[in-house]
Amino acid sequence: MSSNSRPRVDMVKTGVANVASVAAALRRLGADVELTDDVARVRDGAAVVLPGVGSFGAGMRALRESGLDAALAERIAENRPTLAVCLGLQLLCRSS
Known about the structure:
The chain is an alpha/beta fold. Helix content is 43%, strand content 17%.
């Protein structure tokens, strides 16, 4: 939790997502949203959102190049709170 008792949500920065609308919705629900491509924050954060819009190939390339694919896989294997939206959900698969 952040210092003001609002839950912090780490939103994965992939470069292919429309993060503004997802972030706005989460803020309306009372969350502090932080865009990140930090592997440790994505792996260990209290709540993570993987948004997406656009190309599966470009999104996967971005996740693999940054190591975020492995961080997301670890977090999901540990059953940690993770929300994947649209292309973000597809990016959790082997192919699209």
